[in-house]
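Handout for the seminar on molecular recognition.
Each group receives one record of this type.
Step one: identify the two inputs.
Step two: read the structure output and locate the region that could contact adenosine-5'-diphosphate.
Step three: write two sentences on what you found, then compare them with the reference statements printed after the record.
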Amino acid sequence: MPTLVAGIDSSTQSCKVVIRDADTGELVRTGSAKHPEGTEVAPAAWWDALLEAITAAGGLDDVAAASIGGQQHGMVALDAQGSVIRDALLWNDTRSADAADALIREYGGGSEGAGAWTAMTGSVPVASLTVTKLRWLADAEPRNAERVAAVALPHDWLTWKLSGSTELSDLATDRSDASGTGYFDTAAGSYRFDLLARALRITEDAARRIILPRVAGPAEQVGTGDAARGWGHLLLGPGAGDNAAAALGLGMSTGDVAISIGTSGVVSAVSPKPIQDPSGMVTGFADATGEFLPLAVTLNGSRVLDGAAKMLGVDHAGLAELALAAEPGANGLTLVPYLEGERTPNLPHATGSFIGLTRASMNPRDVARAAVEGLLCGLADGLEAMTSQGVPVESITLIGGAARSAAVQQIAPAILGREVTVPAPGEYVADGAARQAAWVLSGSATPPAWSTVQTQTITGTPTPQVREAYAARRELIAARD
Ligand SMILES: Nc1ncnc2c1ncn2[C@@H]1O[C@H](COP(=O)(O)OP(=O)(O)O)[C@@H](O)[C@H]1O
Ligand SMILES: O=C(CO)[C@@H](O)[C@H](O)COP(=O)(O)O
């Protein structure tokens, strides 16, 4: 009987579980369950979905270790009894945009404030980061803020739930997710209680009494499963932020870039040194192995295509067919896809716009093409921001739900100006978590060398004119919103 490990991806839209052979990485079974809609979610819904996905994956009775990768930044505020104080504000909830501005102003504002934050944490605060959500809580719901005894992130809280513990001191996380809070010094690898204090408008002494999950090493066991559920045999890994878990699942190293098109659009790259970008385009997070994982993240990923398909009355295959039937540039039509506001660039109150509609372009093919091109142009901007920080780019791998779109796969090389590789459809975040679990189990210095991911390489003729048109129109929207 092979030794089995479980990897979990608790992402924005769903929870996925993969069970793999710890030695070879071979996929044994899977399960998934949906998450509720919305940018404010009761963490209990993630727990229910995790239990459902575990059951769908055949349970954990024969599994030796598990790790969780999760959507980053979500604020899970706990009281002294370990109860959730209010629904979690997710990474894509923009109500804390003013709080982000205020936190930057308090350090000098503008480039001075942004520079101070990158020096302290690696990132400029935007509404996505937990620190801004805590400031929002302090200002909008002071009674709730007063009750905060611990702050966790989605993956930390779920790992704690898997353990069955109700002791706040058992909360544990990893560097990758801690680095996305905005109160963690990513370069030094330690919490900044002064920033937690500032966020909550309390003294640093009071902030030090708030429990933040212990930051475990990349392959450190953080507990065991809940014995009451029959999981006492299960070793628990520290888990990771979803993007860091994906990097582990893909086996990325310096020079490799992943472009993930899930709910978020993410450009990520492994870096041996911390990245600090005061422009805020690139966030200087950590990875799940001891290195760094700068990201450029948009709020508008797969749902741009979900929305376009719905508008055109087609499914995803139909949308891809329409987009591929159109010419590059969509007859002059551009979609600036800020449907949920935007984070990169930081335009939390922006809305989306079709620009350049004419009688020639007002047809389903060009609308579909503009949707795919607009989505990819936002990601190309993120890639450019990454290279401008000196991050090397040798290969680009497309992952996430919308990377299954034939149109995304075919049009990406033209917009990015580089070939892309597309791995077989899979759950790379959950796979990375499973690899971490196998690493924890092995006790070895490096993650297990599972067989490499099979990929297909796709090339295309670059279409810089499409990006130029997009850039000009993006600036119109930035000036407007
Ligand atoms: N073939 C496809 N073409 C375009 N989008 C797709 C396709 N298949 C799935 N998606 C979209 O991918 C998203 C889910 O991807 P996923 O990476 O699991 O997201 P998340 O990690 O944010 O929960 C959904 O918005 C879904 O509609
Ligand atoms: O905010 C970020 C990263 O900074 C997002 O990438 C979230 O981590 C959500 O990821 P998906 O659920 O869209 O994959």
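Reference statements: Residues 4-241 form a domain with the Nucleotidyltransferase; domain 5 fold (CATH 3.30.420.40). Residues 364-388 form the longest helix (25 residues).
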